[in-house]
Structures are given as C-alpha cells and as structure tokens.
Amino acid sequence: MFETLHKATLDKIFVLMAEFAADSRSNKIDLGVGVYKDDKNNTPIMSAVKKAEQRILDAAKTKTYKGVVGNKEFSAAIVELALGGVVDASRIRTVNGAGGTGALMILMQVLGRARPGGKIYISDPSWPNHWPLAENAGLVPVTYPYFDPKTRSVDFPAMLKVLDTLTGDDIVLLHGCCHNPTGANLTPAQWDQVVESLKRTGAFPLVDLAYLGFGDGLEPDAYGVRKVVSSLPESMVAFSASKNFGLYRERAGVAIAIAKDSATSDVVSSQMQNVIRGSISQTPDHGAEIVRIILEDGELRGEWEAELNQMRERMKRLRVKLSDAIRRKSNSKDFDFIAEHSGMFSLLGLPAETVQKLKVEDAVYMINDSRINVAGIPEDRVDELADFLIAAAG
To answer: What is the mean pLDDT of residues 17-28?
Structure first.
C-alpha cells in the first residue's frame, strides 16, 4: 500500500523547533515559532484564562457534543468583538473552527465548492500554510505584490494595481492586521482603497484575522476587517483565539461568512456544516468555552484586555530596543523598520545563508526567510542580539 508514497515536505517551522530543542547550547535564542513569550521566555497562560477554566471545571456536568456549528455563544461573542455590529446579524453565519487554521480550512473548502479551480490571490509573502490550504480546497493560489524588501514596507501601488485587474470570480486573501511574516501593515486609508477596488471588481474578500489586539489595540486592529465586511455584499473572516487569548493548543477559532441576505447565508451555513461533518465531525469546545466566559463577564474581560495590552506593549518595546541597539552600534538606519512595524513578526531581509550562519555560529534561530518572532527577543540580551545581526548582515 505505502510503496506509492513519497516523503512529504515537513513544515519548516516545526523542523526549526526540533532543531532548537536539540541544541544543547545554553545561550540559544528562539526567534522562530510564532508564540508569545514573556520576559522569562515562557508562553504563559493568561490569568483570565485560568479563572475561566476553573469555572468550567467547577460547573461542567457533561462532555457531550455541542453540535456541528459548535459553541454558538462563543461565535456570537467573537463576531461582536471582531466586527463590532457593523453588519446586520441576519446576513452572518458562523461555525467553530479548530483554531484559525481550521476556520480557514472550512471557509476555503466552501469557496472551492463555489468556484472549483478558482484563483485565490495571496500576498507575497504570506503565512506558508495559506498555500496548501488553498490547494487542498481545489483553489488555485497565485500571489499579489505586498512587501517591498528594499524599502521594508508595503508596496501598496503594486498591490492595488493587481487587485484592480481581478474579476468577480477571484478571491483575495487579506491579513486583517499584523501581517505574517512581514509586520508591515495597511493603513486605514489603504484599507479604504482596497475596499473601493473590491467594489469595482467584485472580487471576493477572505480576511485572516489571527492577531487581533497584537498591533495597535483591539479597535484599531479591527478597522480593516470591519471596513471590508460593512462595505461589501459578501465576505468571509477566519478568526483565531490562539494568540490574543494564548490558547494555542486548545484550537479555538471561528469561521464567519457574510452573504447578501439571510437566505443565501443559510445556504453558506449548510455548506460550512457539511465540511465539518465530513472532516472532523465536531469542533473542540474547551478553548471556545474559555473565550465565551471571558468575553461575557465584564470583570474577566477587563482582566484579559489589560493583559493583552501588556503583551502588545512589550512587543512594541522590544521592537524599539532592538532597532535602537542596531542603529547605535552600526550607525545605520537599515533596521529602523523593526520599530515601525507592528504585531508579532518582522521580516529582516537576510539571505538564507546568513540565517543559517546565525543558527550555526550564534545559536540564533529564525525561519529561513529571516522572519523573527519579536516576542522571542530576550530583553536582557538585546545588545548581544544586535551584535549578532550586525555581524551576520556584514
């Protein structure tokens, strides 16, 4: 049976994780995997999450199924958090996804059924998993320009030029905020222009909202997704609670579909449920219930928002510290963009051989495209890391 198979290519992030774990050097620095880390290099459980979990433990009486659509109250709370009431509820349908990736899978599968072999435009660069998710759904992924490696900023004219050529059969995948892997994000004015382009062409927007609250705050980070869903007759949003609630292994996400009217929304909902039933049958609930409890309880929500603010401000502080240290030591502005970008990631623009050199010689681990997890920067070793990067960049 298995003689027809070939070894699949392993995800480079998980390969890097294994290499880091096997490295015995005590001075190693992990800038690879995209999880938040505190000043002790731990990925903590948020205090509001612990309290919500205790409530679940105390009150739980069953582990029976929630149904194919999942935790409806969790979905409703996420719709309110992300969309803020800008779309009539009669046009919105939701199902739980196994994390943001699961939500994307469900939405792309539905889009693949709606447009078999249709093109989905993905930013260049983008999160690597976007590509196989699209292909597995029967869509044809192609890229649109996004990041200019020379200016370390969004090449918006090039992006818009391509978006303006699309048709009503095309799908556009947009990062709602905190672009992965670059950290370079659209301004509100640019979001407005993207929406106007989508209005003209009729292209369908799919928004990946994986880092709400990690950029400039919950409300500012929601500008783009709210502009899209409130301005266009049809759209989809994949929400992840992995980062902003620290629920990585709990796989809590929501697939949100918005159609032109309630009847069409029901059709889309039936398709989303069909995808779930024919794949994983039911979605996980533990993480979903944690988020529901937090968002429906004023005290816990305030505690969560305060901790989220601390996480975001820490990442901003680390950006500034590293950027300042490199400028001070090299008398160069080449890495000032680190402080100018936002979110968890920055793309340093280093060649693969330099990334390999940093790993082998300095025990500094990052993805081979030179994406770094800003939260992984050890604050007490910023100057040392700056020295490594300056020397490696040559």
So the answer is: 90
